[in-house]
């Protein structure tokens, strides 16, 4: 999931205060403690799940509350703590282990009984297929969520940042450290930067750097992991008493040559590290009393295991083998299939190094007290062959002293990377391969709408805090691969007395 897919808070932005006056008075960078309470809900649907090799349900929901506390330590220094969690339920991730073995006759109740990867699907004694016939045996499907342990997960993260401003407020430097964890991943990050204001604060130059030292806690597709656990014996462990079918639905001889086995015997991750190094440069210029422009460029290097071990790959030049109802094999790639699953040939494998180069431009124009236009463009390329363009526009409209509406539109397009191919079209002779549609060619459209309420006098009080603002945002996202998503976000900002 790339969730990817699924959001780190790295370098909070700090507001600039006015410079010292002739009497030596210095305004504080942040007048008082501010608390942001944020929450969001995200849902998506689609039919190109990467965990099941590029087909199958992509249904996912995610709830992500967080809190950001900014504390002025003195006139010049601000400490910010950003903590949040993200709890998601993913139909595709649940199919890391899609199998229900309760009806296989093996005496094993669910794949987790031997593989340790996760539970199976439902516990019905028999399945009624579309033809009205009854099938009793092990089942699984890329089009239905299983009840495996990987179906639900919680990401948790915290970032602590410190920023110091010079007396004349023309220079700010900041540093941050972060930690995040989830079901199969640990991340430790740190970074820092410096910002310089010139030309009576009409020009701003910034440089930032960040490092992430991440570690996989790898989980593998059940059939691949279990094959190693059973010592390559298809009559042991997870596979004991479970029939393996060929593409015609015939039961194979698990002791013979014409049955399923992973390509090249399957090997686990040897390097569980994923390290990322980023350098960012930006330049901002006020072009007139109503217009501001900024340009930015990043260089990102990633090293280590850059593929996702949960994601299956199937090869066109290798025979297909299945577990489940043989009657469903002819329409395996259709959502009609509810009870047969194709055994993976391998997991996703990608190069252990990647260079990324995004460059972009922002242009904001203030027309009057009512309307402002914010535009953005970014071009991205990397050494995996990916090329992408992003363009967006947001038009805040101030409808009253307290309320601002901001409709927005974002367009994104990319080609596919050099190592992508759809379901069951890769060749076993390739060195690298993925069927993750996040790395395919597609166009995406996002339409959004937001409402912001600002109480400049913070009249509403709760305990020692006054309400400064409320923000609500909704985004509707559509990708030409068929993926659709909705996002709802709500935020409250409080200022301490």
TrEMBL record:
Residues 121-131 have a biased composition (Acidic residues). Residues 105-148 are annotated as: Disordered. Keywords: Signal. Residues 107-120 have a biased composition (Gly residues). It comes from the Bacteria. Residues 1-17 form the signal peptide. The keyword Signal applies. InterPro entries: DUF3570. Pfam families: DUF3570. Transmembrane segments: none annotated. This is DUF3570 domain-containing protein. The lineage of its organism: Bacteria, Pseudomonadati, Bacteroidota, Flavobacteriia, Flavobacteriales.
């Amino acid at each position: 999931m790339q969730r990817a897919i699924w959001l780190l808070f790295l370098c909070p932005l700090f507001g600039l205060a006015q410079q010292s006056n002739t009497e030596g008075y210095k305004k504080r960078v942040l007048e008082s403690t501010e608390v942001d309470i944020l929450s969001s809900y995200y849902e998506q649907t689609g039919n190109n799940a990467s965990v099941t090799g590029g087909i199958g349900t992509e249904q996912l929901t995610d709830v992500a509350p967080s809190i950001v506390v900014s504390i002025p330590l003195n006139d010049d220094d601000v400490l910010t703590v950003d903590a949040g969690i993200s709890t998601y339920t993913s139909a595709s991730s649940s199919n890391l282990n899609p199998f229900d073995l309760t009806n296989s006759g093996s005496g094993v109740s669910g794949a987790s009984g031997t593989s340790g990867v996760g539970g199976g699907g439902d516990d019905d004694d028999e399945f009624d297929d579309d033809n009205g016939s009854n099938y009793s045996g092990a089942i699984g499907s890329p089009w239905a969520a299983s009840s495996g342990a990987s179906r639900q997960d919680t990401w948790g993260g915290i970032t602590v940042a410190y920023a110091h401003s010079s007396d004349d407020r023309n220079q700010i430097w900041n540093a941050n450290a972060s930690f995040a964890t989830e079901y199969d991943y640990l991340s430790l990050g740190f970074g820092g930067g410096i910002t310089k204001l010139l030309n009576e604060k009409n020009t701003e130059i910034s440089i930032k750097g960040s490092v992430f030292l991440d570690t996989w806690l790898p989980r593998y597709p059940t059939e691949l992991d279990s094959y190693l656990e059973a010592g390559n014996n298809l009559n042991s462990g997870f596979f004991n008493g479970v029939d393996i079918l060929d593409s015609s639905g015939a039961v194979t001889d698990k002791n013979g040559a014409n049955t399923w086995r992973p390509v090249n015997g399957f090997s686990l991750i040897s390097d569980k590290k994923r390290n990322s190094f980023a350098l960012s440069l930006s330049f901002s210029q006020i072009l007139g009393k109503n217009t501001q422009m900024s340009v930015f460029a990043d260089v990102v290097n990633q090293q280590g295991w850059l593929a996702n071990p949960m994601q299956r790959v199937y090869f066109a030049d290798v025979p297909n083998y299945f577990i489940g109802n043989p009657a469903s094999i002819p329409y395996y790639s259709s959502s009609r299939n509810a009870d047969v699953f194709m055994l993976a040939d391998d997991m996703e494998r990608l190069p252990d190094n990647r260079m990324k180069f995004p460059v972009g431009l922002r242009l904001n124009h203030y027309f009057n007290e009512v309307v402002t236009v914010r535009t953005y463009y970014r071009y991205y390329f990397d050494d995996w062959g990916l090329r992408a363009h992003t363009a967006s526009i947001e038009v805040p409209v101030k409808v009253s002293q307290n309320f601002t509406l901001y409709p927005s539109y974002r367009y994104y397009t990319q080609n596919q990377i050099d190592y992508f191919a759809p379901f069951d079209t890769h060749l076993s002779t390739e060195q690298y391969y993925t069927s993750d549609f996040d790395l395919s060619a597609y166009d995406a459209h996002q339409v959004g709408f937001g409402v912001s309420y600002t109480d400049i006098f913070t009249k509403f009080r709760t305990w020692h805090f006054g309400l400064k603002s409320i923000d609500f945002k909704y985004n509707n996202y559509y990708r030409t691969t068929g993926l659709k998503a909705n996002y709802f976000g709500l935020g409250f900002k409080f200022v301490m007395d």
